[in-house]
Amino acid sequence: MLDQRSVSYCCFLYSLVGSIFMGWVSIMFTFQPFFINKVENVDRSRDNAYGACVMFLVAFFLSMIGLISSSPDNDAATINSAPRRHYDGGDYGGIPADNHAHTPGVLQDYAENLELPPSVQDGIYS
Predict the structure, then answer these.
(1) Of 48, 51, 102, 116, which cross-links 120 as Cys (Cβ 3.0–4.6 Å)?
(2) Which DSSP string do the residues of the chain spell out, in sequence order?
């Protein structure tokens, strides 16, 4: 369904694109109105384009406030209180456990062979 965050995000993108476009139209009416055909009153059109740009910017900042107010809290207590679970019940943030029948011991063979070959111990790197 529609919540405040999704509506704010939609308005954020829409007003961002609208303010960029109306800013471009305003600049065109200010500096090069002869490129825009069939406009009877250039001054009124320019003022309307600036007004629309300002309204898009107001909607942009209001949607930013809506996004900030609807964002989840990022403090450590909130993040650590909700465990992230894998599809089989394992914890994403934890070390893989060996209690699953379909998962072989991932870290079992890691500590078994930490000896360096004699050529590396003697400093022969060829």
Answers:
(1) 116
(2) ---HHHHHHHHHHHHHHHHHHHHHHHHHHHH-GGGS-S-S-HHHHHHHHHHHHHHHHHHHHHHHHHHHHTSPP--HHHHHHS--B-TTS-BTTSPPPS--TTS--SSTTTTT--PPPHHHHTT---
